[in-house]
Specification:
Blueprint: E1 3-17, E2 22-24, E3 29-30, E4 34-51, E5 58-61, E6 64-66, H1 69-82, E7 88-95, H2 105-119, H3 126-136, E8 148-152, E9 161-166, E10 174-178, H4 189-199, H5 203-222, H6 226-245, H7 256-270, E11 275-278, E12 285-289, H8 291-301, E13 310-313, E14 320-322
Parallel strand pairs: 5-7
Antiparallel strand pairs: 1-4, 1-14, 2-3, 4-7, 4-8, 5-6, 8-9, 10-12, 10-13, 11-12
The structure holds ligand DP6.
Ligand DP6 is lined by residues 15, 18-20, 28, 34, 105, 137-139, 189-190, 280-281.
């Protein structure tokens, strides 16, 4: 019996310029580039054990046995590359305060990419890891890096990966997550974006305007310009959600409470406080702001939301190996 194991930790990321649509479903190649901030507060720890005595892959999430189908498909890529057929036991723990419903496929597949490739004896570069993580879930491509990362869309498996834009974020920026619903989303990102690409008449305009947003957002990051970055992120998120309303059949991830949070952020801005919102494929609202303003923003949000619905997160690190448990 031979056993090879490794453990890795990856943090989730929130896209400021979004990925919403694929040009290749199988390879997970996106229609446009995207840009995200990796967060310190939400992460996944994953241990992969290749064990020659196993008859199939096994998967546990937070100590509960799960179907291993998706994980197996991903491990097949690692097995192909390392020219072996051994099955693996995968154990993951999502570290998300208060089970906030923010656990994401981004941290999951970034952690799995590093743990599985190391356990299989592959010593992949971060670029190769980013490409591998992409095959599990598009947003995982960016979670290989800390801080701000850009996913270059590419045209083939080889040239679609993330690059670090600013791994150490040395200026004042944070996100306050407003937890509105801890339930699993009804329409997955995968289904949602596919429907939009197929049916929204606005899709070509999304791709074009997102490419322009991305260039401006990179400049804003370089210039540490939170106002410009926030304006771009908020408008890009609204355009993504507008695509969903324009699909057939239409759908939306917004809930009444999402709109309440969005209005509160807008109201804070009229009082001169710099804060902007973004939402992914779910109702939770993430507020981009500076730490110096976070107290007043939280106080305002607390006029409606309970303190445990508000979680502050700061720029976080890239994927790393951790001590095996
Ligand atoms: C709205 O990465 O979850 O968060 O590639 O199909 O697994 P798949 O989708 P996923 O989509 C993320 C969409 C988003 C925007 C983003 O993270 O860029």
């Amino acid at each position: 019996m031979t056993i090879h194991q490794a453990s890795a930790r990856a943090h989730t990321n929130i896209a400021l310029i979004k990925y919403w649509g694929k040009k290749d479903q199988q390879l997970i190649l996106p229609m446009n580039g995207s840009l995200s901030l990796t967060l310190d507060h939400f992460y996944t720890d994953t241990t992969v054990v290749f064990d020659s005595s196993l008859k199939a892959d096994q998967f546990w999430l937070d100590d509960q046995r799960q179907s291993a189908t998706k994980i197996s498909r991903f491990l097949d890529l690692v097995r192909q590359r390392s020219e072996q057929k051994t099955f693996a036991k995968v154990k993951s723990y999502n570290h998300v305060p208060n089970a906030a419903g923010l656990a994401s496929s981004a941290s999951a597949f970034a952690a799995l990419a590093l743990a599985a490739s190391q356990a299989a004896g592959l010593n992949l570069s971060r670029q190769a890891l980013s490409r591998l993580a992409r095959r599990g879930s598009g947003s995982a491509t960016r979670s290989i890096y800390g801080g701000f990362a850009e996913w270059l869309p590419g045209t083939t498996d080889k040239d679609s990966y993330a690059i670090p834009l600013q791994e150490k974020v040395d200026w004042d920026i944070e996100m306050i997550a407003v937890i509105i619903n801890r339930q699993q989303k009804k329409i997955s990102s995968r289904q949602g974006m596919e429907r939009v690409v197929e049916t929204s008449p606005y899709y070509p305009a999304w791709v074009k305007s997102t490419q322009a947003d991305l260039l401006k957002a990179k400049k804003a990051i370089q210039a540490h310009d939170l106002i410009l970055l926030g304006e771009l992120a908020e408008s890009n998120a609204l355009r993504m959600h507008a695509l969903n309303l324009s699909a057939r059949p239409p759908f939306s991830y917004f809930e009444p409470q999402s709109l309440v949070a969005m209005r509160l952020v807008e109201k804070l801005r009229t009082r001169g406080i710099c804060c902007y919102y973004t939402l992914d494929a779910g109702p939770n609202v993430k507020v981009l702001c500076a730490h110096k303003d976070s107290q007043i923003i939280k106080e305002t949000l607390q006029s409606v939301f309970a303190p445990d619905q508000l979680i502050e997160a700061f720029p976080g690190p890239g994927v790393q190996l951790i001590n095996e448990k």
